[in-house]
Amino acid sequence: MQLKNKVAVITGGGKGLGKELAKILASEGSEVVICSRTESDLANVCNEIKSIGCKCEYSVLDVTDPKQVYNFVRGVARSHGRINILITNAGYVNEWKPIEENTEEEFENCFKVNVYSMYYFLKKVVPLMRKQGEGAIVNISSMAGKRGLPNLAAYSASKFSVIGLTQSVAKELEGTKVFCFTVCPGGMKTEMRARLFGAEDAKKQQDPQYVANVIKDVLTGKIKVPHGGDIIVRHGKITAINPLPEQGVM
After folding, report:
1. Is the CB of residue 233 less than 8 Å from the CB of residue 146?
2. In this structure, what is the dihedral angle of CA atoms 132, 4, 6, 45, given to the nearest 10 degrees?
3. From the CA atom positions of the chain, what is the Rg in Å?
4. What DSSP assignment string belongs to 128-191?
5. What are phi and psi of 46, to 5 degrees?
6. How far is CA 112 from the centre of its chain?
7. How crowded is the C-beta side of 97, counted as CA atoms within 13 Å?
8. Cβ neighbours for 23, distance < 8 A, ≥ 6 positions apart
9. Which residues contact 218 (CB under 8 A, 6 or more apart)?
10. 3-class SS at 228?
């Protein structure tokens, strides 16, 4: 996919990996539309992008509210005529503690933000991309979605779900020109990481800009990831690219 003049929707686009993705795709000529719940973060990202002559707009959005998501997708499709790229990046992580100390709210929030929001976007964007005849969907999981982490049971379970949902949708999209894959980053220098493990730990992690560049290279075909597969990015390098598992018998 050539990124110039493509319409790219990025959830959780106000900080961390979402911010870096917005900046990189915009610099490649995409019309970037970002969303999150914090307007100040979104405005800062858009202003930074516009200051270098690139295109960006934002919407304040609670991705856990299906009505808000559906109205947002409808609005983007109406104003831009298309959505070429969808990146479901919005994320939530529970506090570091054993499962018996997790609250029901923490467990639910992991799934509402990390999985349900992804479903809401896919529900409306997949039919649009089918009708367009092309598109790319990038779902952000985590290394915690490849191997369960102690004291992060809710987060790990939700990120495993991201991979499963991507694989299922990929199989539904076989034979079309809509391409989807999962990205599983290791630790990154983000506010989320700092809140969980502290600022010193966060400083030692990989730069989200590197992960964003990897995603850009997959979208443009420089890095090959099979449809429905996943790519693992740890310690500032690609450590694995896994294909979509073959269809099994239930």
Report:
1. no
2. 170
3. 17
4. HHHHHT-EEEEEE--GGGTS--TT-HHHHHHHHHHHHHHHHHHHHTTTSSEEEEEEEE--BSSH
5. -65, -40
6. 14
7. 8
8. 45, 48, 49, 212
9. 138, 181, 224, 225, 231
10. coil
Sign of CA dihedral 241, 157, 9, 82: positive
Yes or no: say if 7 and 85 are a contact pair by the CB < 8 Å rule: yes
Q: Which two tokens stand for residue 54?
A: 């690139």
Class of the 7-242 domain? alpha beta
pLDDT tens figures, 147-181: 999 999 999 999 999 999 999 999 999 999 999 99
* Angle at CA of residue 118, ends 124 and 219, nearest 5°: 85
Mean pLDDT, the chain, as a whole number? 96
The C-alpha angle with vertex 142 and arms to 49 and 183, in degrees rounded to 5, equals: 60
DSSP symbols for 15-76 = SHHHHHHHHHHHHTT-EEEEEES-HHHHHHHHHHHHTTT--EEEEE--TT-HHHHHHHHHHH
Does this model's pTM top 0.85? yes
Question: 105-122 burial by CB neighbour count: b if 16+ within 10 A, else e?
Answer: ebbebbbbbbbbbbebbb
Known catalytic residues are 155
Contact 3, 216 (CB under 8 A): yes
Residues 186, 233: contact at Cβ < 8 Å? yes
